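Hi C.,

You asked whether I'd gotten around to modeling the 219-residue construct. I have! Everything is below, sequence then structure, no commentary in between.
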Amino acid sequence: MFDEVDIALRSLLRESLSRDVVVRFDAPGERWTDECSGTETVGVFLHRVREDLAAGTPAGWTDERDPDGRVVRRTRPSRRYELCYLVTAWADDIEREHLLLGAVLSACTRTGVLPATHLTGALARTGAPVTLSVAQPGLSAAPVDIWTALGVAARGCLDLVVVAALATAEPEPVASAPVAVDLGSEVLGPPQREAGRGRRRAPLITEGVRDGQGSGEAG
């Protein structure tokens, strides 16, 4: 993601700066005074990255369906991040440095977004706009002690914030719906009665005598 944003910024600035101007993305340091002598250089130093919470909570997963309407793949929601750059200009005189900063300001505010023609790789595949904000109140400005940390004297600069979406992982396949469900139970028929169980015994009747009654002649 970071390298692709750097490539896009370099491509954008190349359209607005002279071909002789060098664009660097490493941290400026004391050695730059000698290294940039006799040349014109624009430094674009990434000093902070944070999630763009103003965009709100990412939406849910995106479903991809087959012709029958069944979900076959799901893609995680993308997150957007603020990439905060400190932009500096280096030349043999202050007038040239201000001219370079003005050219950068003009290039970044012309449309407010990085044109699609400058986007490459996953940054282009996401389809999400890559926005540019520069020198605006409330932006993530570089801390005042950054010059001491870098070991250089304070100089004119621009605070540039690029908001880009982090490319999500490849869509995750979803298991196909089952064709049949086996509960693991044996299908049984109606219960069988045990032999001789559940039947009433018919009374035994003999000639002249009922079952359960004594035999004999009346006196």
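If it helps when you're writing up: The CA atoms of residues 108 and 173 lie 40 Å apart.

Thanks,
B.
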